[in-house]
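In the design runs reported in the main text, the only information available to the sequence generator was the tokenized backbone. The following block is the verbatim input for one such run; it is reproduced so that readers can re-run the procedure and compare outputs position by position.
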């Protein structure tokens, strides 16, 4: 899953929960910020393959952390956990 910033007018952003029913999309609603120009930006997570569907709704999408970087980060954490000594 990629971490993305989705920027759009409120009317477009209100469509995002419905978009999430056709593909995985997790919104961090508490990150929503008014840009002062009629648009809002919210942080979300989805597969990079879903970005075209979001842009088709009229949103601008900026990738914060791509799928590969997210996977590498979790694999590093998994390796650290696996390499820890067993608990007594």
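Verbatim output:
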């Amino acid at each position: 899953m990629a971490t993305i910033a989705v920027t759009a007018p409120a009317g477009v952003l209100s469509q995002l929960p419905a978009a999430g029913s056709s593909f995985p999309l997790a919104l961090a609603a508490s990150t929503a910020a008014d840009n002062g120009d009629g648009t809002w930006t919210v942080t979300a997570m989805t597969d990079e393959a879903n970005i075209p569907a979001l842009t088709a709704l009229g949103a601008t999408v900026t990738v914060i952390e791509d799928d590969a970087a997210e996977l590498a980060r979790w694999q590093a954490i998994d390796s650290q956990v696996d390499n820890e000594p067993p608990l007594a």
